[in-house]
Each structure stands twice: as C-alpha cells, then as structure tokens.
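name: query_chain
kind: protein
chains: 1
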Amino acid sequence: MKPTGKRFFLTGLLIVLPVLVTVYLFVSLFLFFDNILGRYISKLTEAYLGFTVPGLGLIVFIVLIFLTGVMATNFIGRRLIAYFETLWLKFPLIKYIYPALKQISQFLFSHKFSGSIQRVALTEWPRKGMYVVSFVTNQSVPYFDEKLGRREEYCNVLIPNVPNPVTGFYVIVPKKELIFLDLSIEEASRLIISGGVLNARDLLNEQVIAQE
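structure:
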C-alpha cells in the first residue's frame, strides 16, 4: 500500500511529539526550579554586578538540596530537620498537603521505600475474573495467619491507585493465588501511572534490548 500524506504526517508526529514534549518539560522544570531562588539572586547580581546569570538560581537550589542531604545524615541534622518539620506541620493546610507530598517523594526517590517491595504480581481484584497489577510488599504476619485459620502462605499486597501508585489498598492474599510478573518496580509503576497506555510486552521488550 502506497504511503499517503496523512501517514507521513502521523509518522513524523510520532517522532517529533515526544521530543517536543520532553524539551518543553525540561525547559519548564528548569525555569520553575531556577525561579524559586533565581528571582532573589537576580536582584542581587543586578544590583552589585549589573547583570543577571540565568541558571544561577537552579545551581544554588541544587547546592542547598545537597547540603540538606549531608545535614540529614548526621544526628544533629536529623534532629533539626525533625524540629522544623514539626513546626511546618502546625500550619492548618500544610499538615494535610505536606505528608502526602512527602510520601510520593519517598516512593519515587527512596531506595528504602522501593526496596520494601519484593515482587510485582497480578492480583484478582475487585472481583473474580478481574486482575490488577499489584506490589507484593512482604509475607503476612503470623497474627493474621492464625486469624484466617488456614494452613497456607499469605502475602501483604498493595493494590495501587492510578495514576498515583503510592496510595491504594492493603490486602492479604494467599500466595498461591498471586500471578508473579517479570516486571521491575519501575516498569510496573510506569504501567500504572500511564493507566495501561503503556504495554507490559513493550516494557519487557525494552528490558531485553537493554540487556543485549
């Protein structure tokens, strides 16, 4: 079948659109983080040097993040951060917004949090015949096993919400009823965040290509 102008346009769009969106997001994030401190730093450099330095606010912001990380690794620094966090949470609206944002940040960047997830699996939910991509976090505790009164292995499973995999439902599922997947935590998160737009087979193909 001979290619048409419409097909050429769609093919070009599929190539160009991700590039444009990536550039747009990169520039937007750069301007956003640079503007956090840049607006104040620019006033100082304009007043004392007579010119502004684009990106200087971002550099200072990165240095502050690094120094905060260094401070958080020692006892005194952790105490100071905990103290200021307690004061921060006393504000009426912040105490509802900040914990949720902190939880999302921990999920995205903390190795301890993501390391607590053992496997990715399909769980039959919310009814028979329907399955969701879920995270197996641990073996069930003996207390629940005794209460359930069954002699089989149970697992603690997080049923994540879309598009925010940090929140969801905590359920206890018999291990034999879980269908374990050969997907990493990052790949499963991408699948969930996309609402299924990404294909699990495509993710596995990417994994194979990366290993070659």
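note: The first strand starts at residue 119 and ends at 124.
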